[in-house]
Amino acid sequence: MIRIDAVWLAVAPLDMRAGTEAALARVVGVFGAARPHHAYLFANRRANRMKVLVHDGIGVWLAARRLHSGKFIWPQDSGTTLTLSHAQLDALVLGLPWQRIGEAGVITVL
Asked: Exposed e or buried b for every residue in 20-35, given b needs 16+ CB within 10 A?
């Protein structure tokens, strides 16, 4: 497997016809650079398709995921980028509410 140290999510939609070069150009435009062992996530406007670009230190990998029903839980207006934990990434790709995992899901008062 490819080692992933950090996961970044771009809020603005990406045209899913974009190939590796166009996705890499978007990563550089949005995040400033494609860093080794970082994953960069993009969704289409309807949020039922997602692309992940990963720089493995030698080259780049581009993967796509499509949901046949439902959509990914994608932020609307929380800046241009977000960072996700591995647990949040696991939930996101399954279509689960990833924002509730980690510190955001802590219950402090009953």
From this structure: eeebbebbeebeeebe
